[in-house]
Write a sequence for this structure.
């Protein structure tokens, strides 16, 4: 069993969840993920590793309630335990001195890019972090991201905090204005990540996105998470989760993501309604 | 002698089983198993050969005449204990071994009559002991102070763990999934191998002192090198299996509704999706299903789909006699209403605008000249393409070795197929103190072959742990 040592709702329906998992903390690297089973009847659900503390033996996940299994996780409190926690899984993100690295983040991505921002900065990059949200109260980890970035820009769709608009509008403006970005990394809903690829392609900036298709075991065994990248079938769990945004077959992954939506709606309907998020119409 | 005449007049005893029309509506085990009377009667058919061919044909060389004699005498618990001297998983092997090719295939009675039902007797003895909660713990050898890491809790790893703990070594088994058993848990369906049996056999190993660490991915949490150099293990066994699904590489294979057999069966078996919504993982419950392949995994997938309410067709490119599945499995599938489209090969999967499967284009095949495998090669018949309407396709054409350990262990020698190279006599790999067995060495094979390799590995690991080297002969 794995204990939750700290938990707080950092924005509505965004739960910073710190778990004791020394074996994972010891090996965690930016861009990797874990699989959680809250209890013996849960699904195996992947979550990005946002942060980790090797000395304390803890890892940090950001959890949003979207279905039955994430609801179970969100309802746990500090002191409670999850039945199974596996990781770190996936190929770590390539961390090198690229020059200027722009991180575009939305929804759960605000948490997911934190570890990446720190590692990129430590590797000597100038880190530009652009975070988006529907409204000011959905921005979280502001101080942490600020500290991990050389420049941080906050955007809101309703204009209530920072720049009005999407994170990618900022990236596009920077590129159009001639600013040199050596690498763009986008983490958020599928639509946002797809747009990231479209925005940077004309400028030839290498853009990586963290794909999050449906997974089952997360260790390469089942093939549920296969995605087409550059015309090749890849398994997001062992070949990813990061892929070149300019090579991804977006239409295919979009449709595969919702393969079980009918069943999931049925499962969630057994308890209480789940908040549907607006914004890009994202299905996190 | 009159007794001999009597023996030959006894027919092979059928095993009582659920009627097909009942069992397609549940996931309960299909055969009920022998009663004590049937077991004794069947055991009587054994003529106790002086030079028993069945023992030689068993990958773990179970002393078959000895345990059959104990069943003849009504000493069922003693029979179970006799088997357990050679096989830690008798209830599993009695159910899933291809006995017709192994012990029963070599049975002398089978030359003129039907062979003795050795598998059913093995199953009976193991079940008898378990049902009476009469499982006893054998005496362990004195502790050697040596620690062994077993990577993967499938049939090979469980065998190694059971053998080495009996010899006094301290054994830790690492497993990436949430429950031990490997393919026995995620691959083989409940109706063929109830999970309660796997749990009981794992519990037996726990009672012997084997430690299980779940949710631990060797290759990620620790490498093989780290297990040896930093974590104090004196030897390592790699039994990570063939868990990487193969696909046909045909157009439309990533459409929604195309699954690997691994995904389909893992959802159903390990995640208990057929009990959704009590369990959270949704099942794949569709109307018209095609399963591509002719092996046991294809039969398991087809019979699972049938129980989830589907109309199911097996699509196989060769002829019926060439199907690699056990005859009994094909027979069960057929009885339950699975349809067969033999000499048929899929060419592409068709979908709608939402990327959901609507059908599959196939081509008819005919048998040509024999290929490398000695089987007549299927050749497409020109212009015979046709479309089957479907909403689900399950690809059951095999698995490749799991690459995680080889990828993270650079000094480990690997074949061009991705399997770990191990000396067949000792199962030692290119790294001293590191042994391997099961599907990671042989490619996708059977439970009992994996256990046979586990047995060989355990023997040479014991020698290695005691002497610091593996004996030349491997014994």
């Amino acid at each position: 069993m794995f204990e939750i040592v700290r938990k707080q709702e950092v924005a509505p329906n965004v739960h910073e969840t710190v778990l004791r998992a020394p074996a994972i903390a010891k090996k965690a690297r930016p861009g990797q993920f874990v699989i959680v089973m809250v209890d013996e009847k849960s699904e195996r659900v992947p979550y990005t590793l946002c942060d980790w503390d090797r000395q304390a033996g803890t890892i940090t996940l950001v959890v949003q309630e979207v279905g039955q299994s994430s609801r179970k996780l969100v309802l746990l409190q500090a002191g409670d335990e999850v039945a199974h926690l596996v990781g770190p899984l996936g190929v770590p993100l390539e961390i090198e001195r690229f020059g200027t690295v722009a991180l575009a983040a939305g929804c759960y991505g605000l948490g997911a890019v934190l570890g990446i921002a720190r590692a990129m900065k430590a590797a000597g990059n100038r880190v530009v972090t652009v975070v988006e949200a529907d409204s000011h109260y959905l921005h979280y980890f502001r101080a942490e991201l600020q500290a991990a970035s050389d420049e941080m820009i906050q955007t809101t769709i309703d204009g209530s905090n920072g720049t009005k608009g999407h994170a990618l509008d900022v990236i596009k403006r920077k590129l159009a204005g001639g600013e040199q970005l050596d690498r763009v990394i986008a983490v958020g809903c599928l639509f946002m990540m797809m747009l990231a690829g479209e925005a940077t392609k004309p400028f030839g900036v290498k853009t990586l996105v963290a794909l999050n298709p449906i997974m089952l075991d997360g260790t390469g065994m089942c093939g549920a998470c296969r995605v087409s990248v550059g015309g090749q079938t890849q398994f997001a769990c062992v070949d990813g989760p990061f892929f070149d945004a300019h090579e991804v077959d977006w239409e295919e992954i979009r449709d595969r993501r919702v393969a079980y939506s009918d069943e999931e709606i049925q499962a969630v309907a057994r308890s209480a309604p789940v908040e549907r998020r607006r914004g890009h119409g994202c299905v996190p | 002698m009159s007794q001999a005449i009597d023996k030959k007049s006894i027919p092979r005893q059928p095993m009582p089983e659920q009627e097909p029309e009942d069992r397609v509506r549940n996931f309960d085990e299909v055969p009920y198993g022998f009663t004590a009377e049937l077991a004794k009667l069947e055991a009587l058919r054994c003529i106790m050969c002086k030079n028993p061919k069945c023992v030689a044909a068993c990958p773990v060389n179970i002393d078959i005449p000895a345990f059959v004699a104990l069943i003849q005498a009504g000493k069922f618990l003693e029979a179970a204990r006799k088997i357990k001297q050679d096989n830690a998983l008798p209830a599993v092997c009695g159910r899933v071994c291809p006995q017709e090719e192994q012990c029963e295939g070599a049975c002398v009675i089978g030359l003129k009559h039907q062979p003795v039902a050795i598998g059913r007797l093995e199953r009976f003895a193991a079940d008898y002991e378990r049902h009476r909660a009469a499982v006893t713990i054998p005496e362990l050898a004195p502790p050697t102070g040596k620690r062994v890491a077993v990577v993967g809790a499938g049939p090979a790893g469980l065998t190694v763990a059971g053998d080495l703990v009996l010899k006094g070594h301290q054994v830790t088994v690492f497993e990436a999934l949430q429950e031990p058993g490997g393919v026995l848990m995620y691959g083989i369906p409940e109706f063929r191998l109830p999970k309660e049996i796997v749990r009981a056999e794992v519990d037996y190993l726990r009672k012997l002192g084997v430690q299980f660490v779940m949710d631990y991915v060797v290759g990620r949490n620790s490498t093989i090198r780290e297990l040896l150099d930093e974590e104090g293990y004196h030897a390592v066994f790699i039994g990570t299996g063939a868990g990487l699904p193969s696909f046909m590489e045909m157009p439309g294979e990533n459409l929604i509704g195309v699954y690997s057999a691994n995904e389909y069966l893992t959802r159903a078996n390990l995640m208990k999706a057929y009990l959704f919504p009590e369990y959270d993982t949704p099942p794949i419950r569709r109307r018209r299903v095609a399963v591509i392949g002719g092996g046991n995994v294809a039969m398991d997938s087809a019979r699972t789909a049938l129980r989830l309410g589907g109309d199911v067709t097996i699509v196989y490119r060769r002829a019926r006699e060439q199907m690699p599945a056990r005859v009994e499995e094909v027979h069960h599938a057929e009885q339950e209403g699975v349809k067969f489209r033999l000499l048929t090969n899929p060419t592409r999967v068709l979908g709608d605008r939402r990327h959901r499967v609507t059908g599959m284009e196939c081509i008819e095949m005919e048998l040509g000249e024999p290929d490398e495998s000695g089987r007549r090669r299927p050749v497409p018949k020109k212009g015979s393409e046709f479309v089957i309407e479907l909403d689900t396709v399950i690809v059951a054409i095999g698995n490749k070795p799991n690459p995680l350990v080889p990828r993270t262990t650079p000094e480990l020698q690997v074949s061009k197929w991705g399997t770990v190279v191990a000396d067949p006599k000792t199962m030692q790999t290119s790294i001293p103190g590191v042994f391997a067995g099961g599907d990671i060495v042989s490619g996708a094979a059977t439970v009992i072959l994996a256990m046979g390799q586990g047995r060989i590995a355990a023997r040479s690991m014991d020698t290695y742990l005691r002497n610091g080297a593996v004996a030349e002969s491997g014994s």
